[in-house]
Amino acid sequence: MIRAMRIDLHSHSSVSDGTEPPAAVVDRAVAAGLDVLALTDHDTVAGIAEAAARLPSGFTLVPGVELSCAHQGSTVHLLGYLFDPQHPELTAELRRIRDDRVVRARAMVDRLRAEGLPVTWERVRAIAGDVEGRDVVGRPHIARAIVEVGGAEDVPDAFDRWIGADKPAHVARYALDPVRAVRLVREAGGVCVLAHPARSEGGGTTAVPDELVERMAEAGLGGIEADHPSHDDAERAHWRRRAEELGLVVTGSSDDHGELTGHRLGCSTTDPDAYAALVAPATGAAPHVG
């Protein structure tokens, strides 16, 4: 019997808020029995070259990114794949988002200290690491620093107590309008998938509004990540129905962050036919094949 191709289209490395370098993520993907992996670090493609250099024969790496977007005060995440990484407008927006992450993170550390938590910027940067090309500091790095000083039991608790939306140390940041983000990725020759639509960043449960998803579809959205580890069966069924109604591909992904998420590469996967349909319109870049 021929084994079905196993495809995971959402993962993170230490170039953003994962815990392992891109090469190690590829190694784990191979060990997990995957055939195709998309590396989708937050607002950066800095880890793609290292990951591509690690590929064993026959393994496919899909270059990607997880774009930070916002709609009416709520976080929306967009997965972009196979776009031109040199596209001027998209590159400028990614740089603006990354730069604002640093400003925001410093402000959050200041607020934590004002609340009596001895979190330092130096420690947050040390947790984030000093990987060549690193330019993204995320809230998970701050959350881990909070846990270290005893301010929370674990990373989700740190979000719930301190740095989630409307919490004492939360600071808003620059993010793209989701519809504009879809258009930018499409203009750069890429394809897009709405990430984990039943939850917001940090573990919240605010679903992306149907009206917004419809406008994103009109702008060129290619798929919806219905099969995500944070979605229950009812949520998966709902977003599968919405994808079918809008003529979009359904994807499944692990959204693996290494140790932070329990090394779960391959826990949810994308059907090979759905993958083929999703990437067919891409013209900005090609997958890397070992």
TrEMBL record:
Q: Which SMART domains match?
A: POLIIIAc
Signal peptide limits: none
Matching Pfam families: PHP (PF02811)
Q: Name one GO molecular function term.
A: 5'-3' DNA exonuclease activity
**Gene3D superfamilies with a match to the protein in the record:** 1.10.150.650, Metal-dependent hydrolases
Polymerase/histidinol phosphatase N-terminal domain span: 7-71
| Superkingdom to which the source organism belongs | Bacteria
Q: What name goes with this protein?
A: PHP domain-containing protein
Cite the source lineage: Bacteria, Bacillati, Actinomycetota, Actinomycetes, Streptosporangiales
